[in-house]
Amino acid sequence: MNILPKPQKVQVNDTKQYVLSYDSQIVIDQTCDRAVYPYVQMLQASMKETLGYTLAITRGSSKFTAVTLQMNAELKAQQYTLTIDEKGVLLQASTNEGILYAIQTLRQLIKEYGAALPFVAIDDWPEIDVRGYYLDVTRGRIPQLSYLKQYIDKLAMYKINQLHLYMEHSFLFEGLSEVWRDDTPLTANDILEIDDYCAARNIELVPSIATFGHLYKVLRTQKFRHLCEMPDLVDDAFGFVDRMEHHTLDITNEASFEFVTSLMAQFIPLFRSKKFNICGDETFDLGKGRSKSVADEIGEQELYVQFLAKICTYLVEQQITPLFWGDIIVNAPENLGRLPQEAICLSWGYAADQDDHSVKTVANAGAKQYCCPGVSGWDQLVNQFEVSFENIQRMCQYAKTYQAQGLLNTDWGDCGHLNHPDMSIPGMIYGAALSWNQATTSFAEMNEKISQLEFENVSGEVVAILAEIPTKWVFKWRDLVNLKEDRLEAVDENQIDAIQAAIVALTDLSKKIIQVTPKLDSTQRHRLLPYLIAIDGMKLLQELGITLILQQKESQFSNQGLSERIEEWFMAYKNSWREVSQESELYRIQEVFFWASDKIKEK
């Protein structure tokens, strides 16, 4: 039985079956709220897709009952039970969200068994109450609304109940036209539509905007550059790395707080949520520019906590719970006690061997927190699946050990959000599954289940193949970015043999993907194309690395053929990007590849 997240208690008797007949009905008991109706429609859609027919819905009772939804006040808030026996299918919960989770499990059972369902008794509940996902919709990709809705459906299927969309400059704020005029920003109408879509799937959409650091595009405009901590940097050429390292607000300027609250005032009314993620991370420039004299007097940590507390208090006064990234305050954890007690610290760490230092420190300070791992897609053409799994597994353990309020699995877009967003789905499922039930699960077992359930690959091997891809390249996207931005002086000539071996390994993986494709359901095979495109891009990067090494050694060396293949490949990459994402910052990725293409044409 392949169910993700894995239920807490399952008893199966697969020698007996209950058959869902086309002329039977789904009955919503009168104890249920009418709000569960959209959940039942999801069940109907799954039946239609898998069985070729669906069951009618009614409310109250029916002599043709096959599936019954019923409230049971004795169950915990997110707990549900699912029973299949000779009487039919009975789903029980004490809340609407519990009913939804029961339905999601039933949908997975139907996907695996079809209409002939085994007798089963499931009693299930999550180990971590808040199971969130954090999606960067700023630094590279802004998803098309249609794709984002599909992604939200995935979150709901795997019982994730919170979503944050990270924004720096990618929302059409009034008065910020100079910020978004050359972009494809989300609008208020988009947010309202997304919020409704999430709410119908029991997902809390939490607003999240940069309010301290990471205001690169805002602080380079003519209108707002006077608020930049480091005014000498505002006219520097764009750089992917520079964008992450600089452009913090000068918080000694009262206009900075007014600016931040003006954004919040526009954003808050668009959301049902009574939470607000103010970010506040990586304020690298703080105390080094316009605020230096104040920082010299009171210290950077004091400067930081005063502004953070001011924003948090502003929100709490409006009965909104503030959330913030904890990377700065964890260095002076005594300051956590100076924030409103409602504030939630987001303790993050993304390494495969991530330790518990930050989480433990925040817990010992008595503060509320979420543990925040990641899907490890930043700087990658294909996500690092194994790094992600190990990281998420550890952070889920820390969340349980230190009694965190939630888990927030992050999907960042550093250096352009190069990876196709579908490639984050395995990492998203790792987070969903392990935050629900931390029962011992190996990387291989999890990937086999995801292969079968998500990719409809009966042999269960496709995710294991995909997981190999990011382990094979040597000359990487970040190397090329660093080279273009003068952060990497040269390519190490000692890597030539390893780079050549990487090309061979990546070629072999392309063959494996092509061979496994027929083993996927025909409706899922298209999902492997972005991986094939990514592998070709990685191979071109390896060739580019070798070419740049040789060009360093031989001044007359050039490779016109490689340049053309990079340019031809990028057209396929662009087409893949445009299928799911708005144009956004695609041009910035293009600039890096074409810079490299032109560079190797030089003699």
TrEMBL record:
GO terms for biological process: carbohydrate metabolic process; glycosaminoglycan metabolic process. The keyword Glycoprotein does not apply. The keyword Hydrolase applies. The active site is at E282 (proton donor). Keywords: Glycosidase, Hydrolase. Residues 131-375 form the Glycoside hydrolase family 20 catalytic domain. GO terms for molecular function: beta-N-acetylhexosaminidase activity. It catalyses: Hydrolysis of terminal non-reducing N-acetyl-D-hexosamine residues in N-acetyl-beta-D-hexosaminides. Residues 2-125 form the Beta-hexosaminidase bacterial type N-terminal domain. GO terms for cellular component: membrane. It holds the Pfam family Glyco_hydro_20. InterPro entries: Beta_hexosaminidase_sua/sub (IPR025705), GH (IPR017853), Glyco_hydro_20_cat (IPR015883), Hex-like_dom2 (IPR029018), HEX_bac_N (IPR015882). Its EC number is 3.2.1.52. PANTHER family: BETA-HEXOSAMINIDASE (PTHR22600), BETA-N-ACETYLHEXOSAMINIDASE (PTHR22600:SF57). Belongs to the glycosyl hydrolase 20 family. This is beta-N-acetylhexosaminidase. It comes from Enterococcus alcedinis.
